[in-house]
Fold this sequence. Notes:
There is one protein chain. By secondary structure, the chain is of the alpha+beta class. The chain has a domain at 76-164 and 181-224: Nucleosome assembly protein (Arylsulfatase, C-terminal domain), CATH 3.30.1120.90. The protein contains 7 helices and 5 strands. The chain has helices at 5-72, 78-85, 95-101, 167-171, 202-211, 216-219, 222-263; strands spanning 104-111, 118-125, 135-142, 147-152, 191-196. A 5-stranded antiparallel sheet has the order 1-2-3-4-5. The longest helix has 68 residues, at 5-72.
Amino acid sequence: MVVDKGKRCKVAERGEESDRVDGELVPYIEKLQEIQDELEKVNEEASDKVLEVEQKYNEIRRPVYMRRSDIIKSIPDFWLTAFLSHPVLGDLLNKEEQKIFRHLISLDVEDFKDLKSGYSITFNFSPNPYFEDTCLRKTYSFSDEGTTNITGTTIKWKEGMNCVNGEARENNGSKRPFGEESFFSWFSETHPKRMPEMFSDEIAEIIKEDLWPNPLKYFNHEAGDEFEGDEDDDEKGTEFDDEDDEDGDSDDEEEDEGDEEDDD
């Protein structure tokens, strides 16, 4: 293929013009970069200030949480009821594990003093026929390198009462269905190797960010009404969609009948 000399000249001219324009923009781009660097510095300072405020109010909230825990201990099956009323956590407890939760006297979520470094979730049980432990804890530690280290209590199950492998249910005449995971296996889901920062533990996040701040709304079944309302809206939307589909079908049928009459 032979390229027209005129076209070659135009392409060369455009290239030179582009280089010239880019060269003229360099000082502006450098100034923009300086401003972006300045904004990044301000954002970092803002994040540090937010953490300082959050840490201050965490210390203020702590004794309030302790007073709340003391009152909850006087309410039978408070945490069991709150768990079962939660739209996600409620699906994690089978009947045998619900019996274990009747021995749960307190739940505690505590951030480390340095908020960025992690938190722990602690389940405190009264003496029970299932395991020797009275405290089950899971801890999440975040490093400056952006990794997460997870540790959990190794549960000391009493003989024949291990719910993780289904022993307790077998003793009661029913075996755990294959593939059904025990809530208590969550404590053993630890990662000795440091995990990437993007690693997510949904159960921990739900307990920390949703259940722990206000368990009373789940104990009172207040949150369930909100979810039912959403479902009702979805159902209404489906009904309207169905009606629209039916109207559309009838319109199509009328058009088809009209076409047939024209053909006749």
